[in-house]
Amino acid sequence: MTAQVPHILVVGGGYVGMYTAYGLRKAARRGRIRVTVVDPRSVMTYQPFLPEAAAGSVEPRHVVVPLRKTLKGCRVVTGRVTSIDHAHKVAKVMPEEGPDYELAYDQIVVALGSIARTLPIPGLAEEAIGFKNVEEAIALRNKVLDRLDVASSQPDPALRKAALTFVFIGGGYAGVEAFAELEDMARYATRYYDNIKPEDMRWVLVEATGRILPEVGEELGKYTVEELRKRNMDIKLDTRLESCEKGHVILSDGEEFDADTIVWTAGVKANPALANTDFPRDEKGRIKCLANLRIEGLEDAWSAGDNAAVPDLTSDTGAYCAPNAQHAVRQAHRLAANILRVVDGQEPQDYKHKYVGSVASLGLHKGVAQLYGVKVKGFPAWFLHRTYHVSRVPTLNRKARVILDWTLALFFRREVTSLGSLQTPNEEFRRAAGSK
């Protein structure tokens, strides 16, 4: 560690980690600081575009941002930080291959984010799929299209019905957008099957509370339920998943049925790896932060995003900033600026941002939005959704590629080809090797 050149360790390459390092990269290139980013993945995923990637509206490669290409001047380590000893300013790194090693730092940014919040439901781990990364989005797309192929070729009514039943657990952003976008894609795809009609499919959304999309307000939440039900989609409010062993779904309202596709999007929780640190945490496992994004009680440690409890200075009730992309990106910009201020001997500034509102896509040309208190529905909301998120996706390169995807879609029909076999590329070879 060089005393004259502070070493900034960024733990995590998601919204907060990537954008913080992006804000520090110029200073790193000039030799003012050294920046190291550690993440198990070599890309940052722009999660709001996952539903569109799953539906085929956006090329999967265009919703991920390569860290090494974007963070020129920073060192990127593909590995997992397994523990942090801030008292000695050392983090233990488990690389993709090889033995663990220790990495010393002068200042640290903890941006481990969140993981799916699951429950001990029988069959959930074995039968369900999440929706937090691009691999899951593409696997789900392939699964839906593959089930249409299976149903079209299956004479058994029970097996056919299970293949055409799709269950989503969780009525937040991720669940509703994925639910609506994939149904929209599958509905379009049925035109290529002579024995499957849209009404043959059953799409079920299970939400434990009495409303969906709480971020857009109660009125737009009710509107969304009504619109989805008009598409013959089954919205079950105040209902919980009790079991899904071997694809047999049992709900708390007493209904039972078989489903080949079960998707879990029922919330997130702070990364449990934070337990292996000496940072102060709250009852939800989040790191306690000050409004200037410093970790409470520490000088050389920072945090933001889903894994941090950051006071919301715009709230009169002592609330914390919501765990969403809007706050995470803005917090990262403030965090990078604060680190540079501290390096220059200045005091860090507080993070303060009044929530702008929310936008959600409900399929092609359909959406809901609430911006600055104004409620928008239908095509205008869908257009706002796309406009907002393309403005937020990092780098001009990715913005241009996403816009090009959308532009090409105006002139060509939607692509509904399944590439599920890519997930088992050696299956044909195994069959050939096992034949006589």
UniProtKB/TrEMBL annotation:
InterPro entries hit by this protein = FAD/NAD-bd_sf, FAD/NAD-binding_dom, NDH-2
Residue ranges of the FAD/NAD(P)-binding domain? 7-319
| Protein's UniProt keywords contain NAD | yes
> What residue ranges are annotated as transmembrane?
6-24
Q: Does Nucleotide-binding count among this protein's keywords?
A: no
Signal peptide span: none
Entry-linked Pfam families:
Pyr_redox_2 (PF07992)
What Gene3D superfamilies does this protein's entry cite?
Answer: 3.50.50.100
Report the superkingdom from the record.
Bacteria
Provide the GO MF annotations for this entry: NADH dehydrogenase activity
Alphabetical UniProt keywords: FAD, Flavoprotein, Membrane, NAD, Oxidoreductase, Transmembrane, Transmembrane helix
Tell me which family the UniProt entry assigns to this protein: Belongs to the NADH dehydrogenase family.
The name on file for this protein is NADH dehydrogenase
